[in-house]
Amino acid sequence: MTSTVPTSVPEERTESPAEAPPLTMFGPDFPFAYDDYLDHPAGLGSVPATEHGTEVAVIGGGLSGVVAAYELMKMGLKPVVYEADQLGGRLRTETFDGADPSLTAEMGAMRFPPSSTAFQHYVDLAGLETHPFPNPLAPDTPSTVVDLKGESHYARTLDDLPPVYHQVMEAWNACLEEGADFSAMQRAIRERDVPRIREIWSRLVEKLDDQTFYGFLCAAPSFASFRHREIFGQVGFGTGGWDTDFPNSILEILRVVYTGADDDHRGITGGSQQLPLRLWEREPGKLVHWPQGTSLSSLHPNGRHRPAVTRLHRTAGNRITVTDADGDIRTYRTAVFTAQSWMLLSRIDCDDALLPIDHWTAVERTHYMESSKLFVPVDRPFWLDKDARTGRDTMSMTLTDRMTRGTYLLDDGPDKPAVICLSYTWCDDSLKWLPLDVNERLEVMLKSLGEIYPGVDIRKHITGSPVTVSWEDEPWFLGAFKANLPGHYRYQRRLFTHFMQDRLPEDCRGLFLAGDDISWTAGWAEGAVQTALNAVWGVMHHLGGATDPGNPGPGDAYDEIAPVELPED
Fold first, then answer.
1. What is the C-alpha to C-alpha distance for residues 165 and 143, in angstroms, rounded to an integer?
2. Which H or E element spans position 368?
3. pTM for the model
4. Contact status, residue 512 vs residue 554, Cβ threshold 8 Å
5. pLDDT, tens digit, for every residue of 456-490?
6. Helix or strand (DSSP H, E) at 105
7. Which whole-number Å values give the CA distances from 241 to 152, 216, 247, 396, in the listed order?
């Protein structure tokens, strides 16, 4: 997801840090406390002993698939994981040919907010360390350069930027307060006040479902200035532009800002792909049916997942039959599908009976955003050298309207090898890179940054080959993440609530959708985790299991917190 401007609220309505509970991705569409559910000593639930050892197909080995498989294994079921490429999905960490092997590049998810509390549960479980991520103007970022229309501004804090950026910040804060009850919703989320969350959100969903992000800005008196909207779109006021999201539903943006999803980001030391890889090998201390020492790896021959799924169809007894790339055919009573939803339309031969027709329509209408990155390894964090003439850092975290858009400087100390993300772009800006190979991209990026930093020779510090990705060109992804367009709320509701299958015809049950594009918080690992837990509850319920009365799951709480249902006619 793009980095956004950090929101603020009017001073008289802001609680002190000591008084304010932390934000979580708790609602607003489905305000269920996934972190409490995970932390409860009773566990997530159980299945009858007669079901122990039952195989469950898990299609997709990204974070959602691995979390679902891990929790199903703990219940005594036998997950069979299918993955077309490598475990991790868009938690993909790469190294550089010819460079220090300790250097890594986060090709997908690279920064995680503290409000991702269910995700953090698994980070802690895996024993991973985190560190502050150097977003523009973040406290741990040495300096930031905002370069717009050929004019650059150097800043260590927001106060160092020209007044117009403060005006943009004030316009955005006013826009959120006047049009979306921002501080009231944040307070309700902090306090986990479900009735208040639902009261505010129900009204806004009905009012704003057909509104674009840009239309929402234009309707706000505080954003009457085109110049302010342009700056906000291109570079924010120093912390990240929003223009790639302008055509999307404003509801998508409100979910992000309400829950602090773009605030106080942290990176995972050593790379985010470690999380699914460690969960794959992890031997839970508390599990049912399986002997101690069991892991997902040990449940799969040679520790390897099954290959790509090529066909999915229903067979007699409402079973799910899976054909894989090796030609192996297996039939399951239940399955979890966590791969990118468009795979059901293209790369996997699917039976129409897999989903109700309205759910097929929702999959067809799912809108994905493009994204590209390019990283290079360098000998040291030379950007911390001081310019003798100005006393400033030689180079800074950079936001610009040039081709590179966002440049991130990543180091582990002043005397150690380091990494530069030369460019991080979205949508049309990403498509501009698509025809270019990795070396062509590198040359354009160095030229663009050379215009911002004319005295800096980045090339002489590069120590290995660049690595790049365009997620729209990845055959098993076809895009970076889902982003609803105006009018898509009903489609998203169908996909998210698919785990509640008592409401579906009997011949449409047994296959459960999960993954961040099924969630309300697409583009965030938290959404992958939450929908995985929904699917685990669905499988458990489908097989006759139940949660402990002291720890109700998402399906048990559904009737009280179900997403707003808009009329179809």
1. 16
2. strand 368-369
3. 0.95
4. no
5. 999 999 999 999 999 999 999 999 999 999 999 99
6. strand 105-106
7. 15, 16, 14, 17
